[in-house]
């Protein structure tokens, strides 16, 4: 079983929102075969704590427009790694140092990548 269409829509919208706030290294993994609690992980990096907050705010605003509300949010106080759980999708916004240290990509590298919009991948490749 792969990620639902709803989860893919949320993931792509979250990735676009993050890209609009200049997030870097935006990727999404279909983890539906590995986890029963969610379908997609979206990962992105920010250069500083303020940018982490800005990305989180934009992701929440854009997903709210689709009628999605976070089930929970963690790490907001420190602003180094914020996790936003939407049930079908979990968005990880990490300060670039946390991203390198925890290397979530290594943990999920066996999972298929979710194809993201060209505007997101172009910004990530630049």
UniProtKB/TrEMBL annotation:
Official protein name in the record: Ribosomal silencing factor RsfS
Cell compartment(s), UniProt: Cytoplasm
Protein species of origin: Nocardioides marmoribigeumensis
Gene this chain is encoded by: rsfS
Main location as per UniProt: cytoplasm
Keyword Ribonucleoprotein among UniProt keywords: no
Record has Oxidoreductase as a keyword: no
Assigned keywords, A-Z: Cytoplasm, Repressor, Translation regulation
One Pfam family hit: RsfS
Subunit structure and binding partners: Interacts with ribosomal protein uL14 (rplN).
Signal sequence coordinates: none
Family from the record: Belongs to the Iojap/RsfS family.
Function: Functions as a ribosomal silencing factor. Interacts with ribosomal protein uL14 (rplN), blocking formation of intersubunit bridge B8. Prevents association of the 30S and 50S ribosomal subunits and the formation of functional ribosomes, thus repressing translation.
NCBIfam families, per database record: rsfS_iojap_ybeB
């Amino acid at each position: 079983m792969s990620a639902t269409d709803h989860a893919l829509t949320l993931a792509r919208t979250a990735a676009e929102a993050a890209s609009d706030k200049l997030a870097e290294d935006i990727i999404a993994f279909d983890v539906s075969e590995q986890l029963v609690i969610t379908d997609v992980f979206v990962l992105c990096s920010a250069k500083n704590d303020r940018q982490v907050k800005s990305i989180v705010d934009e992701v929440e605003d854009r997903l709210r427009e689709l009628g999605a509300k976070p089930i929970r949010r963690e790490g907001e106080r420190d602003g180094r790694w914020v996790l936003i759980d939407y049930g079908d999708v979990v968005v990880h916004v990490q300060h670039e140092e946390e991203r390198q240290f925890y290397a979530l990509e290594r943990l999920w590298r066996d999972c298929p990548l979710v194809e993201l919009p060209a505007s997101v991948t172009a910004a990530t490749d630049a």
